[in-house]
Amino acid sequence: MTKRVAVLAVDPVNGFGLFQYLEAFFENGISYKVFAVADQKEIRTNSGISLSADDIIANLKGHEDEYDALVFACGDAIPVFRDNADKAYNVNLLEVIKTFGERGKLMIGHCAGAMMFDLTGITQGKKVAVHPLGKAAIRNGIATDNKSEVDGNFFTAQEENTIWTMMPQLLQALKSD
């Protein structure tokens, strides 16, 4: 039996990154649900394409045990995260990430994904790949210059163009019992 995945999509989300995960999950029979990190299900990509997520982040909170893995799909919302950190959806985002991480679930992300994981304190001693501009923000984990890192339950890629380098290991982990 494959694992169930909660996919977090910021608004705006990087469509290329998000769609790589979704296509791989669909093609491999991996169950997933997309949660908008927003107040509503309607979000958009960095290029302006409108998307309707399955649900919103507020409705994932308290249901973390229904999933085995969490994907953080990065996007243009992250450079302005600091200006919006107090918004309920971003507070929920950090709480959900922390809960998944503390429960030892698979943690998957690209670009600033490792930075968001690190912000919650769950990357202690883990090697993570992060966008070069976010490398200095890593305080708990060990930021590398590699295209991707797989360290225990953490699967991170520097950016959307390097997700493919960790995809075989990720799919194997998601398909195993």
Would you kindly provide a written description of the structure presented here, covering whatever features stand out?
27% of the residues lie in helices and 25% in strands. It is an alpha/beta fold. The strands form three sheets. Strands 5-2-1-6-7-11-10 form a seven-stranded mixed β-sheet, with helices on both faces. Strands 3-4 form a two-stranded antiparallel ribbon. Strands 8-9 form a two-stranded parallel ribbon. A hairpin with a 5-residue loop joins strand 3 (42-44) and strand 4. The longest helix has 15 residues, at 88-102. The radius of gyration is 14 Å and the shape is globular. The model has no long low-confidence stretch (mean pLDDT 96).
Low-confidence stretches: none
| Major sheet: arrangement of strands | 5-2-1-6-7-11-10
Strand content: 15-25%
Q: How many strands, which pairing sense, and closed or not: the largest β-sheet?
A: 7 strands, mixed
Tell me the distance between the termini: 7 Å
> How many runs of DSSP E, i.e. beta strands?
11
What's the SSE pattern?
Answer: EHEEEEEHHEHEEEEH
Q: Indicate the structural class.
A: alpha/beta
Question: Concise description?
Answer:
By secondary structure, this protein is α/β, with parallel strands linked by helices. 27% of the residues lie in helices and 25% in strands.
Spell out the blueprint of helices and strands.
Blueprint: E1 5-10, H1 15-27, E2 32-37, E3 42-44, E4 50-52, E5 55-56, E6 69-73, H2 81-84, H3 88-102, E7 106-110, H4 113-119, E8 127-129, E9 142-144, E10 148-151, E11 154-157, H5 167-175
Parallel strand pairs: 1-2, 1-6, 2-5, 6-7, 7-11, 8-9
Antiparallel strand pairs: 3-4, 10-11
